[in-house]
Amino acid sequence: MKQIYFIINPKAGNGYCLNVWGKVETKLMEDKIPYFAFFTEYPGHAIKLASQIAASNHEPKVVIAVGGDGTMHEVVNGIVEYNNITLGFVPGGSGNDFSRGFHIPSEPEEALSVILHLIKKEAAIIDIGEVTMKDDSQAYFINNMGAGFDALISYEVNHSKVKAWLNKLSLGRLVYVYFLLKKLFSYNCTTIDLSIDGRRHILEKTWFVTVSNQPYYGGGMMIAPKAHPADGLLDITVVHNLSKLKLLLVFISVFWGKHIQFKEVKTFKGRTVSIQSSSSLYVHADGENLGYTPLNIHIQTKTLKVLTRVGSMRETGLKERDSNELQ
Ligand SMILES: Nc1ncnc2c1ncn2[C@@H]1O[C@H](COP(=O)(O)OP(=O)(O)OP(=O)(O)O)[C@@H](O)[C@H]1O
């Protein structure tokens, strides 16, 4: 069997992740499965740990992130340039949208069982998004990225103590709702200039743009119900031209993926996307703050090997599609 490395974020889920790791560790010992474990010590550390593991030799290895979407995001960014790594995930964060979108069980022992089962089978090969910022710096996302109101919410969530309190009450998912309501009334919408595969869209009074590789974000909102991480396309969602009150209505419907029925919600599919705006907008990737617009996004198809129940294109009956056909 390939060597298994765990990268654990002890701060994820406001420390709940250490309980998750305790359960995983007990199961590994019971089943006498050899492994290496590394704990992150500061933000960004998982990128370094993951790239060091990948670079240590050319042997194929399994790296399993234990934490939230931010931990998975860092691990992806650490291994993206190496082709000897297969990725796994045990959810231990507050939002855990990766596990929702990639069908990883929420119970730690169950997640581990699925991973150990899948190690013996073929991993899914999925797409990822590459974001290039104005200063040419690059970052990759596995779930989604966003610019505008949703990125502002991410920023507020990541810099607030409310998340810790809600996590203590096992209500971590509600932190996004709390900040949405808090920021809704002071937010100023902007005109955005969106290019998708060279086709330009000027969208006035825009709340936000998200670019998704899988359906879920923000702790369970089904922002891009038709997104599939192995279809060779990114799903773009724009919410614009609607009142604050109607935004709340759209927001409620997003948990069921019904928001796309509103005329103010535009959806597109594409391979390259550029976002410019009349004023600088906050940007996030997988819920981690990235900076500000303008930026360019490019899909890297079939780039990552992931231990997930989300099947390959062949298994799900999807065909490689042309983005223009689907807009
Ligand atoms: N030792 C550490 N001390 C402080 N912060 C850390 C440490 N290790 C990692 N981090 C940071 O913790 C942040 C949150 O991690 P993560 O997103 O995995 O958990 P979460 O926020 O609870 O879950 P989710 O993103 O699913 O809501 C990340 O930005 C990461 O860089």
Automatic annotation (TrEMBL):
Keyword Membrane: no
This protein's UniProt keywords: ATP-binding, Kinase, Lipid biosynthesis, Lipid metabolism, Nucleotide-binding, Phospholipid biosynthesis, Phospholipid metabolism, Transferase
Pfam families, sorted: DAGK_cat, YegS_C
Domain DAGKc: 1-135
SUPFAM superfamilies xref list: NAD kinase/diacylglycerol kinase-like
Cofactor: Mg(2+)
The organism's place on the tree of life at top rank: Bacteria
Molecular function via GO: ATP binding; kinase activity
Gene3D superfamilies cross-referenced by the UniProt entry: 2.60.200.40, Probable inorganic polyphosphate/atp-NAD kinase, domain 1
SMART domains given in the database record: DAGKc
Family membership noted in the UniProt record: Belongs to the diacylglycerol/lipid kinase family.
Protein name, as recorded: Diacylglycerol kinase family protein
Organism: Neobacillus driksii
Lineage of the species this protein comes from: Bacteria, Bacillati, Bacillota, Bacilli, Bacillales
